[in-house]
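Design job #97: recover the sequence.
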């Protein structure tokens, strides 16, 4: 008689990795012999590099909404420049090189830093000036510097027009720095017209606030050197962007839309006449005032992403997350459900307790 398997045997066995098309796991080739075309002056290309897709880690997130990082930078492009946006994750083939852009801006995150450096090397070999920016450049400027003609450290929306003006004047500097202290309402709207409309669930990715009232130890907002104060855009600015879009569904990509309840209430009352549906990331303390949840539901909110992180008070303390007690999570989730708002819960694995 064969021994009975251990109770946890299904968790010990290695699951077979689901098959994915090679294009989802391997970046487009960068042909070293591709000559490229002539350099087009005052043409800038913004590139979101490829990263391998993992069916066990937010698979499909890359086609939910377009990133606002580079489209916001594109919105700050000065007059006289042509700008194009290229997202390698949309499986459009190798990045464009005919004509060769005068300037190539590449966003760098740890997840795809290697690919970003490969792209930088490829474009520089064809005569383009490469500007690297993003969170990884902020964290590791010495690593990124050899791969770029210039680094944008800090708020790229402020730096982009300065960099392009310096390119035009022939005085490009190796490093540009900016803080996030400038009022957020002064940022231009993102260039959503540059995004292929059929490539995402919705192109109406919106952002109303920047920063968060928390500084959880695992969050990118706690990155060394990153000082991003909590700021809000004018309600009228956000409403106008959604009104101008013909999308029936929008996604707020704020770190935490609910950080300031009075602002959320005003925003929701302004969104309500548009009769669109939307989702957002909030913290569970948005349920401190069920009236705010009601305003969200009436304004079209159908789902929220909430980082519960852990069911252990000790883990939450270690992570410096200010949050209601875990034993109250179920009651608070029920408040959201009672208003027709679904909850996408997120948890962190690997805490000490």
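Job complete. Output follows.
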């Amino acid at each position: 008689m064969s021994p009975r398997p251990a109770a946890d045997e299904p968790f010990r066995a290695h699951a077979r990795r689901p098959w994915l098309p090679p294009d989802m796991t391997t970046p487009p080739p960068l042909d070293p012999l591709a000559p490229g075309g002539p350099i087009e002056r005052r043409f800038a290309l913004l590139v979101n590099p490829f990263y391998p897709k993992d069916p066990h880690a937010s698979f499909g997130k890359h086609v939910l909404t377009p990133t606002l990082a580079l489209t916001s930078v594109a919105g700050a492009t000065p007059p006289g420049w042509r700008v194009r946006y290229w997202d390698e994750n949309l499986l459009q083939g190798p990045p464009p090189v005919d004509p060769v852009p005068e300037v190539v801006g590449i966003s760098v995150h740890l997840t795809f830093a290697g690919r970003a450096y490969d792209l930088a090397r490829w474009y520089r070999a064809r005569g383009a000036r490469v500007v690297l920016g993003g969170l990884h450049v902020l964290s590791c400027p010495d690593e990124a510097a050899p791969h770029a003609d210039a680094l944008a450290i800090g708020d790229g929306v402020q730096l982009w027009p300065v960099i392009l003006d310096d390119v035009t004047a022939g005085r490009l500097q190796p490093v540009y720095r900016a803080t996030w202290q400038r009022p957020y309402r002064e940022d231009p709207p993102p260039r959503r017209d540059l995004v292929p409309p059929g490539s995402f669930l919705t192109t109406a990715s919106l952002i109303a606030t920047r920063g968060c009232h928390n500084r959880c130890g695992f969050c990118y907002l706690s990155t060394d050197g990153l000082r991003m104060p909590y700021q809000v855009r004018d309600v009228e600015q956000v409403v106008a962007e959604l009104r101008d879009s013909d999308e029936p569904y929008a996604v707020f990509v704020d770190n935490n839309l609910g950080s300031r309840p009075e602002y959320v209430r005003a925003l929701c009352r302004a969104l309500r006449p548009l009769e669109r549906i939307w989702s957002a990331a909030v913290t569970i303390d948005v349920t401190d005032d069920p009236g705010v949840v009601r305003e969200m539901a009436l304004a079209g909110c159908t789902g929220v992403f909430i980082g519960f992180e852990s069911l252990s008070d000790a883990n939450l303390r270690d992570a410096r997350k200010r949050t209601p007690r875990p034993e109250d999570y179920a009651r608070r989730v029920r408040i959201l459900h009672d208003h027709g708002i679904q909850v996408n819960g997120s948890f962190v694995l690997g805490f000490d307790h």
